[in-house]
Design a protein that fits this description.
Blueprint (H helix, E strand, L loop, with lengths): L2 H19 L5 E7 L9 H9 L3 H4 L4 E7 L2 E8 L4 H14 L6 E6 L4 E2 L14 H7 L4 H32 L21 H24 L3 H22 L7 H18 L7 H12 L10 H9 L3 H7 L3 H6 L8 H14 L3 H7 L2 H12 L6 H13 L5 H19 L9
Antiparallel strand pairs: 1-3, 1-4, 2-3, 4-5
Helix pairs in contact: 6-7, 6-18, 7-8, 7-9, 8-9, 8-10, 9-10, 9-18, 14-18
Length: 422
């Protein structure tokens, strides 16, 4: 069977799935990337489909199935209790007004037939009708591919930059915060302030986008991890150049970089693993040859106390972040503080250990946080003063708070990130 026959077979398979679902649902929506050429399973196709996965949340109590065959990936949504014609009107509006709507076909079916639009769709590249350009081969596949590619990347770049920036600012503006830098205090950091953190944030933001794009394009995980490490080093260099050598976000570059890369890898191909499992695999590849013999804070903590620190958290597939998602129910002060409290108590924070200077004092401070009532502002301020007086800070916990906020925000945009209940 040649590729064209396989594509036709894939379309028949999709039609059969839709017919089967119409026995249970009044309306079925099929979302399919409209890509040129015979390779219907390119990473762009998956990125396009995932950009519209928000529709699953749009229709309450709907059935969703994400599938793929030689005709490419497709999202099937079954709905009851909605008028099919109204659904079709809503889908046409999305096709015409969403930034990427021109590059997908959203078909709506009812019990009797497929509901069609009254107006023909226009070509991507010119003002002619799409069917005419296809028939006459007015544009080459490369022209169309490059145009779609640019639009897709710009779309994800804009969204990701906003979500990453917002996530970092949510953490930075949280006040009071137990010796960490806030918009109103340098906390326990005599060499840092709010303005410096903003500079560091702006310096590293573009590198997260580079990590995302690289992860979409590369399938070999070992090669990908090696290249991601290079981008991370470049991000650190950029950060240190604007902070005059002060480490503001080294830990975040690693943690958020791993998560964003895992997200990019997941939504750009058909894989069974969730993002946490992919992050675990990336981390295991990255740390496969470590011997914990260096003079770094993390290696010293491992040798002396068995602390795995950020490496252990990453190699667990961010198990504590997964659990913390259940605490970050919204972005209120109480929810963010409860999540930060959870990390301070539960992770092995080597930056906290360094400032505590002994495991005994470290554990004493953890016990103070175990007794903290987040709804009691007086207790929060008192414990913050205690941390500043004792030069304590919790950089690792702050980094994971940013990561958790990012996952919550990206989950509202795309259904790909799902909490693992196992």
């Amino acid at each position: 069977m040649n590729i064209k026959d396989k594509i036709l077979y894939g379309r028949e398979e999709r039609a059969n799935i839709i017919s089967s679902l119409l026995k249970k649902y009044d309306t079925v929506i099929s979302i399919k990337a409209n890509m040129p050429g015979e390779d219907k399973n390119s990473y762009l196709s998956y990125l396009l489909i995932n950009a519209f996965s928000f529709l699953v949340k749009y229709y309450q109590n709907s059935f969703c199935n994400y599938l793929q065959n030689e005709d490419g990936p497709f999202l099937i949504i079954g709905i009851n209790g909605c008028e099919s014609k109204k659904v079709k009107e809503e889908m046409i509006d999305i096709e015409e007004n969403h930034d990427l709507g021109r590059f997908i076909d959203i078909d709506v079916y009812d019990k009797f037939n497929i509901l069609t639009r009254n107006e023909l769709r226009k070509c991507y590249l010119c003002d002619d009708y799409a069917f005419h350009c296809m028939k006459t081969r007015k544009h080459s596949e490369n022209e169309i591919w490059n145009y779609i590619s640019e639009k897709v990347y710009n779309y994800y770049k804009e969204i990701l930059l906003q979500i990453i920036d917002d996530s970092m600012m949510e953490e930075l503006n949280l006040h009071p915060k137990f010796g960490l830098v806030t918009s109103r205090s340098s906390g326990s950091h005599k060499d840092m302030d709010y303005e410096l953190m903003i500079k560091a944030k702006d310096a590293i933001l573009p590198y997260f986008i580079d990590m995302f794009i690289l992860s979409c394009r590369n399938s070999d995980k070992k090669i990908l991890v090696s290249e991601l490490k290079k981008i991370g080093i470049s991000a650190e260099t950029s950060m240190l150049s604007v902070t005059n050598g002060i480490n503001a976000y080294k830990g975040l570059i690693f943690n958020l970089g791993i998560i964003i890369s895992s997200f990019g890898y997941k939504i750009s191909r058909y894989v069974d693993e969730n993002e946490f499992a992919i992050a675990k695999e990336f981390s295991e590849i990255l740390f496969s040859d470590l011997d914990y013999s260096s003079n770094s804070i993390g290696d010293k903590a491992f040798r002396e106390y068995g602390f795995l620190g950020v490496k252990g958290e990453a190699m667990s597939g961010y198990a504590n972040v997964n659990k913390a998602l259940g605490l970050l129910t919204d972005l209120s002060f109480d929810s963010k503080m409860m999540t930060l409290q959870y990390f301070i108590i539960n992770i092995q924070d080597t930056s906290f250990l360094k400032r505590a200077k002994s495991l005994e004092f470290y554990n004493d401070v953890v016990n103070l946080f175990l007794g903290l009532d987040i709804k009691n502002k007086k207790q929060i301020y008192e414990l913050t003063d205690f941390c500043i007086i004792n030069n304590l800070s919790f950089g690792g916990s702050a980094d994971l708070l940013v990561v958790t906020i990012f996952i919550k925000k990206i989950s509202d945009f795309c259904i790909s990130f799902k909490k693992d209940n196992n």
